[in-house]
């Protein structure tokens, strides 16, 4: 999907996963989130890591909004009304990111701000051998009100927990009735103190990866870690890399485990964000726990087959095209597929285009063709 300034966003197949649950008194916003927007520049097709003193050529390159924009875009493309509070630079990078999110994706940026004289943070990501290496540059935004004192009334909020730091808006969002979904980054302090994640007590769901979960719980098994985390939150979800994901419902004791979909990854940037967006969607739609995990894993798997973290996030049209394609694939077991993804049948539109299909041009922009 591409748009120009002033156009209304148009996703290739609009689906509202909450259509059966919406009431006139519901909040206008489904999901609120805040964070730093980066301009991501992604190099793919590298045969190896760059070697000091040499020049490496990549076979592919793309640019797209990154950072918190990955999550915001993934949520919006899955049909959730998304509000983002972030600072944007007043350079061309910031203008491009703002237009891509507001005009291109229909994300509400009314709580965001453009900061005069501040340049956009930039990340260069190099993908090779199924992994990635990143180099980032940026300065703290000189903005006192980057996060609103009172977040908007919303069904849900997404937070990134930081050891030793509490964000007042997270508690306020939870008290207003929002379900807070949280992930966490690597603890550079090495303490891995679960008590240091002060905002965890306000969270509905916590979604660390296996290494993070085991360190925080002092366990040697990711499934045991998930069970321990379920004492702290309603839903403890641990991603297991190539093995898929495991989840525990702390209220009922229900567990679910779904294997990962095997795909050929082009760029893993933002896959974790897309996974969280898929799980948020399934939770707000009140799907069974195993269906939420399967959907989150599917959306993440589809995302790594394209450039970038935001522009690679799948839409319902792409999911529909994949579903039609994969059922006729010689290497797939149709019965197993239907057993795991049958819940998609009631949601998916008829695919408008065959798989594979691309949705966006991952570049800062082309000049409009003369008419």
Description:
The chain has 371 residues and is α/β, with parallel strands linked by helices. It has nine helices and 14 strands. The chain has an eight-stranded mixed β-sheet with strand order 4-1-9-10-11-12-13-14, with helices on both faces. Strand 12 and strand 13 form a beta hairpin. Helix 1 crosses helix 6. It is globular, with a radius of gyration of 20 Å. It starts with 28 loop residues before the first strand and ends in a 30-residue tail after the last helix. 43% of the residues are buried. The N terminus is likely disordered.
Largest sheet: 8 strands, mixed
User: How are the strands of the largest sheet arranged?
Assistant: 4-1-9-10-11-12-13-14
Mean pLDDT: 88
* Ends distance: 20 Å
Order of helices and strands: EEEHEEHEEEEHEEHHEEEHHHH
Helix percent band? 25-40%
């Amino acid at each position: 999907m591409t748009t120009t300034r002033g156009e209304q966003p148009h996703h290739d197949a609009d689906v509202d996963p909450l259509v059966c649950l919406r009431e006139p008194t519901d909040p206008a916003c489904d999901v609120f989130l805040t964070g730093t927007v980066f301009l991501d520049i992604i190099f793919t097709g590298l045969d190896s890591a760059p070697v000091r003193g040499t020049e490496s050529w990549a076979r592919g390159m793309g640019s797209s909004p990154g950072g918190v924009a990955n999550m915001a875009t993934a949520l919006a493309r899955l049909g959730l009304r998304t509000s983002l509070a972030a600072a944007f630079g007043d350079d061309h990078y910031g203008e491009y990111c703002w237009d891509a999110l507001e005009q291109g994706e229909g994300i509400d940026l009314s709580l965001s701000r453009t900061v005069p004289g501040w340049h956009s943070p930039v990340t260069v990501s190099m993908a090779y051998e199924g992994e990635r290496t990143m180099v980032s540059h940026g300065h703290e935004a000189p903005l006192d009100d980057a996060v609103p004192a009172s977040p908007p009334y919303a069904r849900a909020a997404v937070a990134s927990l930081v050891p030793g730091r509490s964000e007042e808006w997270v508690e306020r969002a939870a008290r207003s009735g929002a379900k807070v979904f949280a992930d966490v980054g690597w603890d550079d302090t090495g303490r891995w103190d679960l008590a240091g994640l002060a905002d965890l007590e306000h969270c509905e769901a916590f979604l660390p990866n296996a290494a993070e979960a085991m360190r925080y719980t002092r366990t040697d098994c990711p499934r045991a870690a998930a069970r321990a985390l379920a004492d702290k939150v309603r839903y403890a979800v641990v991603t297991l890399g190539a093995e898929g994901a495991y989840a525990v419902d702390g209220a009922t004791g229900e567990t679910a485990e779904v294997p990962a979909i095997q795909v050929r990854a082009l760029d893993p940037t933002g896959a974790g964000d897309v996974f969280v967006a898929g799980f948020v969607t399934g939770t707000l739609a009140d799907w069974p726990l195993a269906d939420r995990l399967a959907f989150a894993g599917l959306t993440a798997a589809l995302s790594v087959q394209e450039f970038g973290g935001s522009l690679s996030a799948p839409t319902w049209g792409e999911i529909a095209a994949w579903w039609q394609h994969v059922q006729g694939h010689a290497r797939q077991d149709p019965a197993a597929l239907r057993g795991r993804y049958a819940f998609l049948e009631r949601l998916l539109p008829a695919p408008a285009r065959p798989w594979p299909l691309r949705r966006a041009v991952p570049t800062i922009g082309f000049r409009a063709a003369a008419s």
